[in-house]
Design goal:
Blueprint (H helix, E strand, L loop, with lengths): L14 H20 L2 H8 L3 H7 L3 H24 L5 H17 L4 H10 L7 H23 L8 H17 L1 H11 L8 H16 L9
Helix pairs in contact: 1-2, 1-4, 1-6, 4-5, 4-7, 5-7, 5-8, 5-10, 7-8, 8-10
């Protein structure tokens, strides 16, 4: 006897977005290994069948999140790198884009830091290529500035993480700084995006400026 095919679950408008948002919360809070499809379904207020209707597995759902997260940043940075701007202006624009990307997403840092702690074992070649592309874009702008003698010779990897590290650390440490403020009465307060962008741009220009002094536009 041939069994009738099961009908696909009816997806309401916005269901996929709700699943993605719930998954971001769970992956960010628990990491990939400790997150279950059951928890994602409960947070998204859908059944597991609906999740599997949109994504073939937990890994596929995680991959979709990571690719969207890094893909958007990679595209924005690459667009800046190809503009007819000075190397200094490109660095300024890259920093602004990175800060806005981190500050514009409550999911980016938790997932990013969890993946660092796990050694990126849940990222496939395509996802690693996106991250590598971000580094390559920043490195390319630095190399361009060195070639034009607008920047001094620096190690591109160290320069890249000199720019990224303070952004990640400062934003990620917000809960710790809040506890210090309330228990130790020492205010190591938050700053808005504009202030953080200006500070990191200043750091970058001083780090990259040729030894004889900053290049002039």
């Amino acid at each position: 006897m041939v069994r009738p095919r099961r009908a696909a679950p009816t997806a309401l408008p916005g269901t996929r977005s709700r699943i993605l948002s719930a998954a971001c919360d769970e992956f960010g809070a628990r990491g990939f290994a400790a997150t279950t499809v059951d928890r994602i379904a409960g947070r998204a207020r859908v059944n597991k069948a609906m999740i599997y209707y949109h994504f073939s597995s937990k890994a596929a759902l995680y991959t979709a999140i990571v690719r969207e997260m890094y893909g958007q940043i990679a595209e924005q940075l690459q667009a800046i790198a190809t503009q007819p701007l000075s190397a200094e202006a490109k660095i300024d624009a890259l920093i602004e884009t990175l800060v806005n990307a981190v500050d514009g997403s409550r999911h980016f840092l938790p997932i990013f830091l969890r993946e660092i702690a796990d050694g990126a074992v849940h990222l496939g070649p395509a996802e690693l290529a996106l991250i590598a592309g971000i580094f390559s874009t920043v490195r390319g702008v630095i190399v361009e500035g060195v070639r034009q003698r607008r920047f001094q010779q620096v190690n591109p990897a160290l320069a890249h993480f000199t720019l990224i590290g303070p952004l990640v650390m400062f934003r990620a440490s917000a809960p710790v700084r809040e506890r210090i403020r309330t228990t130790q009465r020492l205010d190591i307060g938050e700053v808005d995006s504009r202030t953080l962008i200006a500070h990191l741009q200043m750091v970058a220009r001083r780090m990259l400026a040729p030894e004889e002094g900053p290049a002039k536009d």
